[in-house]
Design brief:
single chain; alpha+beta; 5-stranded antiparallel sheet; 27 helices
Length: 835
């Protein structure tokens, strides 16, 4: 700031103007400073007002209150607090009248009336209204505020939720009413009591008596008794009365009990007078009651009889029971207690105290081993003072016996001991826990994915295989998710089409909640194939089993394709063999015919060598003809064109025909044939007689081919019960024995199954296996079995078992497919060594 004296005066005469300019500058600076200060003060005041407003709004929220400022036309100008939540609205208010919409219908007219009086006359009001929700109460205060000539007066409304206060006031009113009712009911109850009851003040004056008291002193009513201060028992020189007993109870501050005899309704009865000081009471200092104890002796006698009956009942129980009286002496024990503790009968009859019983049991080692037996014993004896509820202990005795000991207070004083030997129960529990642990470990290590759903639809159990199969987090599964949430988690694996997911989810949900046995197969989105099964459990739960069968399905598909290829190849083979066989029969018949003509020497005589050659040609042609016939039969069977002509015939006739054929064949090979069967017991059977004869002939000729020269082939037949016929049906068993010991049973089984067409045995010859393959097919068509067994002398026997009676409805008219025949051949031939 520049001093005035420092301003240079110029000769121009402008000094006064300079001084004026300086003064104006000073005033401007001062005004700027004052303005800055005022703005700072205004900002501070505005900040303080904001803080105060925030405090007010916070208080309003804490007290569930709000305020409304409106103009004289009812339009809102300002609000405070959470007004919309207080009124239960979702939209803010624009007019004061909208507050009435939050009130019950009955309160809206009154609110509108008070609001009109406030606007028109400036009459303040304060009322409590019920809210429209029927649960809350709203306290509303209204006041008119002075305004400006332009705006007119303002309306101020203070709203507060007073539901808790209203409930508290109502509860207090209800409490007062209940207390008054309780007092009235208590007095009415006391009036209905048969025993006299009374109340005294500190001056021992009667202030209340019941009707029984008035009847006992022959008064008209209770008011007369109180007016005359009529005592049940008056004081006398010989014996104090009830007033004296009340004085002693007041002075000693303790209960005083006396027994007096009174004549009530002309009958002498004994009453137990009880005087009880009521501490903390001003008017009713002492309460008294006279209890009729005339029937006590009868009750005590009944109690004694009841105790005797109870003792007899307990004595017949096998559970050890002992009763110790209030004096801690043994009052009762049954035979089970004596047997369990090992104590002498004389010792128990002497009524020892509890401590002596514990010591005697310790000597006999019938209590647990204790490091400090004295402390343990004192703890048990303290039960007489501290025990209020039954306490249970487990005693592990030195002989590995485990006892469950229950100690409980007796209603008549003392303690009651009940013992139970739980040794076997604990052993069973340990075994159960072990089995449960084994089952749990087995469950967790199953290859199948297992989950168990509870009756509430939540996952109760699951194993790691289930989590791995469905790619689920074990932590998530441990939270027991609901099945609907589980399906949502599996959507990525189950969902194949976004549009159909909800429908597919509903299908799975209905399956899981149906609680029915269901099975199925599902192809997941990742092309894994899962077989599932839902099994309802007896406890209402559902067992869900899942197995990944993708590899199995792929193998089955490959086997199916391979099987179809094999069937096609086998059919082509059969057709080819059939065609070739038919083509071979024509030249073969010519060879056989010309051979027979030459042997009959129609065209001239033959020498010896020529005859031998012709015989070899004839024999070879016959064998070739038989082989071609077998091939043709096999081809017809495999093509499904062979039909059986089943009829009933005697088995003996069939065997006689077989004897003729086999005997001739055996003579040609320098071997013997013998038939072994019971003609009377073999009976009849149902079969295709021609095809069965063909089977037996092929079996015998093969046996003759593998039997050494001079050997004997035996065909036996017998009748027996079928193994798989519980209804008593019979079977006929044919057996051909005495194959060469050099022919193994394995080779014979391969010939039966068609896997070996011929077998050579050193020194004995070579035979075709097509005949036995044909036998196997014909036996299968008769629903029989063909198998190999080994005899005691290490020879091979071929056995054919056929049902004696055939069900024509079930009889197959053609052979089964090649694969099925191979399977059954493997079971009946390769899988069985005995019939």
């Amino acid at each position: 700031m520049v001093a005035i004296g420092a301003i240079p005066w110029g000769a121009s005469g402008h000094a006064p103007l300079s001084i004026l300019l300086v003064l104006v500058g000073c005033v401007a600076v001062i005004a700027a400073l004052v303005s800055i200060r005022r703005r700072r003060v205004a900002r501070r005041r505005k900040a303080m007002d904001a803080v105060k407003l925030d405090m007010v709004l916070t208080a309003l929220d804490a007290n569930r209150a709000a305020f409304v400022i409106a103009d004289s036309w009812g339009r809102l100008i300002d609000t405070g607090g959470d007004l919309t939540r207080l009124l239960g609205r979702t939209e803010p208010l624009s007019e004061v009248d909208a507050i009435g919409a939050a009130l019950v219908d009955d309160a809206r007219p009154a609110f509108a009336e008070h609001l009109t009086a406030l606007v028109d006359r400036g009459k303040p009001f304060r009322r409590r209204y019920a809210m429209a929700d029927g649960e809350r109460s709203l306290d509303v205060r209204g006041r008119r505020l002075a305004g400006t000539p332009n705006t007119g007066p303002f309306l101020a409304l203070w709203l507060r939720d007073v539901t808790d206060e209203a409930l508290w006031e109502q509860e207090n009113r209800d409490l007062v009413d209940r207390l008054q009712q309780e007092r009235d009911r208590l007095r009415a109850l006391m009036d209905t009591a048969e025993c006299p009851m009374w109340m005294r003040d500190r001056d021992l004056r009667l202030t209340f008596v019941n009707q029984a008291y008035a009847d006992a002193v022959n008064a008209d009513d209770a008011d007369q008794v109180i007016a005359r201060q009529m005592e049940l028992v008056s004081d006398s020189a010989r014996s104090p009365g009830t007033r004296d007993a009340a004085a002693r109870a007041r002075d000693l501050a303790t209960r005083v009990v006396e027994t007096h005899a009174l004549v009530v309704h002309g009958e002498r009865r004994h009453f137990e007078m009880q005087q009880v000081p009521m501490t903390g009471q001003d008017e009713a200092a002492i309460a008294g009651a006279a209890i009729d104890v005339t029937a006590r002796a009868a009750v005590e006698a009944d109690l004694a009889r009841h105790l005797r009956s109870q003792s007899e009942t307990l004595d017949n129980l096998s559970t050890p029971v002992a009763l110790f009286g209030p004096d801690r002496h043994l009052a009762f024990c049954n035979s089970g207690f004596a047997q369990q503790t090992g104590l002498d009968a004389a010792f128990l009859e002497a009524k020892p105290d509890h401590e002596q019983v514990l010591e005697a049991m310790r000597v006999r080692r019938r209590v647990p081993e204790q490091a400090d037996f004295a402390a343990w014993k004192l703890e048990r004896l303290d039960h007489y003072k501290t025990l209020r509820e039954p306490v249970e202990e487990i005693w592990h005795l030195p002989d590995e016996t485990t006892l469950r000991v229950v100690t409980q207070p007796h209603p008549l004083g003392g303690l009651l001991w009940v013992m139970e030997d739980i040794t076997d129960r604990l052993a069973l529990q340990r075994s159960y826990n072990t089995q449960l642990a084994v089952q749990r470990e087995t469950f967790n290590n199953l290859r199948e994915g297992i989950a168990v759903l509870g009756s509430d639809g939540r996952v109760k159990l699951h194993n790691p295989a289930f989590d791995k199969l469905w790619r689920l987090d074990t932590v998530y599964m441990d939270t027991q998710p609901h099945v609907s949430d589980l399906l949502d988690a599996l959507r990525g694996l189950l969902d194949t089409d976004e549009a159909d997911w909800h429908e597919e989810r509903d299908i799975w949900l209905s399956r899981l909640l149906a609680r029915e046995f269901q099975t199925g197969r599902t192809v997941r989105a990742d092309q894994r194939v899962v077989d599932w099964a839902f099994v309802p459990l007896p406890d209402g739960r559902l067992l869900c089993s899942n197995v990944d069968v993708t590899d199995t399905v792929e193998i089955q598909r490959a086997l199916r394709e391979r099987n179809e290829a094999l069937e096609t190849a086998d059919r082509l083979k059969s057709e080819f063999v059939a065609n070739i066989s038919y083509e071979l029969r024509t030249p073969l018949n010519s060879i056989i015919g010309f051979t027979e003509l030459l042997q009959e020497q129609v065209f001239g005589p033959l020498n010896t060598r020529q005859g031998e050659y012709l015989k070899y040609i004839g024999d070879s042609a016959d064998r070739l003809r038989l082989l071609i016939d077998d091939i043709l039969d096999l081809a017809v069977i495999e093509a499904g064109g062979l039909e059986l002509s089943v009829r009933r015939f005697p088995v003996g006739e069939l065997l006689d025909n077989m004897t003729d054929l086999a005997t001739e064949q055996s003579r040609k090979t320098d071997k013997r044939f013998r038939l072994d069967y019971d003609r009377d017991g073999i009976g009849h059977m149902d079969a295709d007689r021609r095809r069965l004869l063909q089977c037996l002939y092929n079996m015998v000729t093969n046996a003759l081919a593998f039997t050494e020269p001079g050997g004997t082939v035996v065909l036996s037949a017998r009748r027996e019960l079928a193994d798989d016929a519980p209804d008593g049906r019979e079977a006929v068993v044919f057996a051909v024995r005495d194959f060469s010991p050099a022919l193994s049973g394995q080779d014979l089984e391969k010939m039966i199954a068609g896997m070996m067409t011929s077998v050579s045995v050193a020194g004995e010859g070579k035979a075709s296996g097509l005949g036995l393959s044909l036998v196997r097919n014909l036996v299968d068509m008769h629903h029989g079995t063909l198998f190999v067994e080994r005899t005691a002398d290490n020879r091979t026997a071929l056995v054919c078992r056929l049902p004696a009676t055939l069900d024509l409805d079930r009889l197959a008219v053609a052979s089964p497919p090649a694969t099925a025949v191979a399977d059954r051949a493997g079971q009946s031939v390769g899988g069985a060594a005995k019939p």
